[in-house]
Amino acid sequence: MKHVIVFAHPHTDSFNRAILNTTVQALESNGHEVIVRNLYELNFEPVLTSADTAAMRAGQTPEDIKTEQDYITAADVVTFIYPIWWTGLPAILKGYVDRVFAYGYAYAYEKAGIAKLLKGKQGLIINTHGTPKEVYDSIGMTDGLKITSTTGIFDFVGIESVDHLLFGGIGSLSEEVYADILSQIKNRISTLFPQ
To answer: φ, ψ for residue 162 (rounded to 5)?
Structure first.
């Protein structure tokens, strides 16, 4: 299978980077093709402009958007790996969704309702957050995050979610717990995407 991983964390020594590396290694060891789109390394422009929308309406999608759309189109599986900041996506990833998952490419409106134009693809989201998991679970934030990203992004455009993994307390855990999280991710990836 072909996988595109959209990664959004600015620090090369972050736990999110360890999650990315673990995910790539697990997929490649099972014979999958993996392409990583590291939005910070790409210096991806997150601001959707009126020039962008005018160009897309004219059928002249800006090159940086078209490049990312081509990666999404070629992928069987789309994975987002990012930290939860202010109970949502980092701005660079929100801008990626705004610009790349554009009207006419990822969805359209029809008389019968919304046309989901990315059907046939699978999606996985892996998140970290500093708040302890038990707190997010108890206040409904875990469910809220799943609704806004899994349902609000992937399902809206027809990508079938295979899982949404959230890991809390990042920044205050022991090395053993971090190692266990990476082991959980490796095992889940291998279960979802075997050889």
So the answer is: -100, -20
What are the helix and strand counts (H, E) for the chain? Answer: 9, 7
Distances (CA, A) of 15 to 22, 75, 76, 156: 10, 25, 26, 29
Calpha distance 156→106 (Å, rounded):
9
Is this structure's pTM higher than 0.90?
A: yes
pLDDT in tens, 64-86: 999 999 999 999 999 999 999 99
Q: Are 90 and 8 in contact (CB under 8 A)?
A: yes
Burial class of residue 90, CB neighbours in 10 A (0-12, 13-18, 19+)? buried
157 token code pair: 């455009």
- Which residues, including other chains, have CB under 8 Å from residue 132's CB and lie 6 or more apart? 168, 169
Contact 90, 149 (CB under 8 A): no
Strands of the chain (E only): list them. Answer: 2-7, 33-38, 77-83, 107-110, 113-116, 122-128, 160-167
With H, G, I as helix, E, B as strand and everything else as coil, classify residue 109: strand
